[in-house]
Amino acid sequence: MPERTKNASGEMGVGVKNDEQSWWASPSNVASHFGTSGVAVATATGITHPLDVLKVRLQMQLVGQIGPLTGMGQTFVQVVKKEGPRALYLGLTPALTRSVVYGGLRLGLYEPSKNLCELAFESTNIFMKIASGVVSGAFATLLTNPMEVVKVRLQMNRNVHIGAIGELQKIAAKEGVTALWKGVGPAMARAGALTASQMATYDEFKRVLLKWTPLEEGFYLHLASSTIAGLMSTLITAPMDMVKTRLMLQRESKRDGAYKNGFHCAYKVLITEGPRGLYKGGFTIFARLGPQTTITFVLCEKLRELAGLKAI
């Protein structure tokens, strides 16, 4: 949190303590700063990956149609029965690779972005936190979108045995290198909204809970704040996640190949599948994103403590 200090005239102002900026003071501190974020996100991703597979399957059901939707439990049974338990871990390699880079940048860039806002505007209010989250999330996604495309393709195709690298080469050869950035617009919007909702909510609720409850910096404060952040981020990002998935899978689906961009995709879903279509797999998203957010923040805070870094 920013420290209130007195300036030369004796007035109170907002300042940043030197030790709060020390994460960039040396290469080892920089590595610890981004490394703790990447490891935390990768661990959470590995634990919740089966739910991510189910989410993608649910988002791709009844494309262009209105009808009864299969629930998460039934989809889980169908996948395990028809494809075996290993199908729940399709796309795990690119998911973990992406999460280390994406997670490290998404969470790691939030704090320096917030510090820059503080230096520029002498404030770290909720709007500065939201802006910091949007920038860090969107930038991280722009760099790692190819890994997300490969992951989603593998999750939908149980007959692929060429692995992540082979799938990457196949997409580039058949569809062109630019295909690896399919859905990057909605993905950046979703990541910006996700990071902003997660980080700003977590950051702000930590501040509120510290001020108004007996909770102190530690596990229970991190648990409560991250649970609230997980719920908020799900409500905001579920439609963007669905649009992103549809765009990335256009070539894999026979029915959904007419989406021109994210807005066109959202419009077609609303017209042909109804408002509920934008929240297909919504419960699965929360079932995954809620625990993933909690694991990420609780673990990241612990790793930062062990690395000698201040709490988020």
Q: What is the CA-based Rg, rounded?
A: 21 Å
Q: What share of the residues does DSSP label as strand, in percent?
A: under 5%
Biggest sheet, in brief?
2 strands, antiparallel
CATH homologous group name of the largest domain: Mitochondrial carrier domain
Query: What's the tally of helices?
Result: 10
Give the SSE string: EEHHHHHHHHHH
Walk me through what this model shows.
The protein is 69% helix and 3% strand. With 312 residues, it is mainly α. It has 2 domains: 84-182, no CATH class; 185-311, Alpha/alpha barrel (Mitochondrial carrier fold). A two-stranded antiparallel ribbon has the order 1-2. A hairpin with a 5-residue loop joins strand 1 (3-6) and strand 2. Helix 1 (27-59) crosses helix 3, helix 3 (92-108) packs antiparallel against helix 5 and helix 5 (126-156) packs across helix 7. The protein is globular. The relative contact order is 0.14. Solcar repeats lie at residues 32-116, 124-208, 217-306. It is a multi-pass membrane protein. Its main location: membrane. One of its GO terms (cellular component) is membrane. This is Mitochondrial carrier domain protein.
